């Protein structure tokens, strides 16, 4: 097992995202549920939306969110322990006039469905969060008059064993919304990673939109690993005493010190999950790591750094995750690639707003 020590939340250097300038008209306001470190929100912000409230149960992820998004609008909330009505009251107190709230975005935790979770089970309590999401969407459609929602999850939610669960979810999401579904792969949207995810867009029935057009794949050359991480300096290796300012180049450019003899030769075994080696001229495998499953750098001498994983996810260079190493691994693994989020947001803006 890898030994992971606490990574101080206080950064020696502060990195901030420069958001796009305000337009002359007010931006449509959003609520973000299961916001994580903010990849989905970043894409929607870049497309012209304004997230006025974000929530996640993961404290380190919320700290990362607030470190990169202005206004400290991320809140630590366990939505399984918070009623939709209580959440409504809190959102109303923060976002103000309910008439300007346009929609809800978010991806409930997918570990209960993910193929990467060998211990997944239909009885996983996290599976209940998809129904809580539906409850919140329906309440907010009544109280706030939201026009749409965007739901993201792993495509395995559509597996045969989940048929009953998905049918119930679709039924609940369809109470007030027409729903549209499509599986998208990040590699089609200028992200140097193959990452398949299911997106469900709900459009309020009052808008009478009979069809929602999801974004089309980019016509540009597909990005590969070398496009985003080749030429980076060597990362720092984990140590108990390391501080963010001790890490050269970027506060997240660190990884575990290689211990296996395989890292001496750079030759990795075929099969298994622990030693998947990336290739320079291909998109990365899906960034969805366990602590011993962080992909091996293409040179074969170490695993990729957290910063390199962020780049493979399509985050800007200035984005910084907080928390200890294992918390950063979880955050980058759970994130929606911002370029994919931005393309979906553009489609929403053009067709619904």
How would you describe this structure to a colleague?
The protein has a domain at 29-221 and 337-351: Vaccinia Virus protein VP39 (Rossmann fold, 3-Layer(aba) Sandwich), CATH 3.40.50. It contains 10 helices and 9 strands. The chain has helices at 39-46, 59-68, 84-95, 128-143, 163-173, 225-229, 262-265, 306-312, 325-334, 338-351; strands spanning 29-33, 50-56, 74-76, 101-106, 148-153, 177-185, 196-204, 236-237, 254-255. Residues 1-23 have low confidence and may be disordered.
Low-confidence stretches: 1-23
Number of strands: 9
Superfamily (CATH H level) name of the domain at 29-221 and 337-351: Vaccinia Virus protein VP39
Largest sheet geometry: 7 strands, mixed
The secondary-structure element order is EHEHEHEHEHEEHEEHHHH
CATH topology of the domain at 29-221 and 337-351: Rossmann fold
CA distance, first residue to last residue: 49 Å
The number of helical segments is 10
Question: How does CATH name the architecture of the domain at 29-221 and 337-351?
Answer: 3-Layer(aba) Sandwich
- Give helix % range: 25-40%
Strand order of the largest sheet: 3-2-1-4-5-7-6
Sheet-strand content, in percent, reads 5-15%
**CATH top level assignment of the domain at 29-221 and 337-351:** Alpha Beta
Average residue pLDDT: 90
């Amino acid at each position: 097992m890898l030994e992971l020590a606490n990574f101080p939340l206080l950064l020696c250097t502060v990195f901030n995202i420069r958001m796009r300038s305000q337009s002359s008209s007010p931006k449509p306001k959003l609520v973000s549920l299961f916001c994580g470190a903010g990849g989905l929100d970043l894409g929607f912000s870049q497309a012209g939306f304004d997230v006025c409230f974000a929530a996640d149960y993961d404290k380190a992820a919320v700290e990362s969110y607030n470190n990169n998004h202005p206004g400290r609008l991320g809140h630590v909330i366990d939505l399984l322990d918070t009623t939709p009505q209580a959440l409504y009251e809190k959102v109303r107190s923060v976002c103000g006039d309910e008439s300007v709230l346009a929609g809800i975005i978010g991806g409930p935790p997918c570990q209960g469905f993910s193929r990467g979770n060998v211990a997944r089970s239909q009885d996983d309590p996290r599976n209940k969060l998809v129904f809580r999401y539906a409850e919140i969407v329906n309440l907010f459609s009544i109280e706030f008059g939201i026009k749409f929602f965007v739901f993201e999850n792993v495509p395995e939610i559509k597996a045969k064993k989940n048929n009953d669960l998905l049918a119930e979810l679709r039924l609940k999401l369809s109470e007030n919304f027409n729903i549209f579904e499509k599986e998208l792969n990040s590699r089609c949207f200028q992200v140097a990673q193959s990452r398949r995810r299911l997106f469900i867009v709900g459009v309020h029935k009052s808008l009478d939109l009979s069809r929602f057009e999801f974004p089309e794949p980019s016509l540009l050359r597909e990005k590969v690993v070398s496009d985003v991480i080749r030429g980076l300096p060597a990362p720092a290796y984990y140590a108990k005493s390391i501080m963010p300012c001790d890490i050269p180049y970027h506060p997240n450019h660190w990884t575990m010190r290689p211990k296996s003899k395989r890292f001496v030769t750079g030759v990795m075994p075929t099969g298994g999950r622990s030693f998947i080696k990336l290739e320079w001229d291909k998109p990365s495998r899906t960034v969805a790591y366990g602590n011993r499953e962080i992909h091996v750098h293409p040179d074969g001498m170490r695993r990729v750094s957290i910063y390199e994983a962020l780049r493979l996810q399509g985050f800007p260079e200035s984005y910084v995750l907080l928390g200890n190493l294992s918390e950063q691994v979880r955050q980058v693994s759970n994130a929606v690639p911002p370029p994919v989020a931005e393309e979906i947001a553009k489609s929403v803006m053009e067709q619904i707003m």
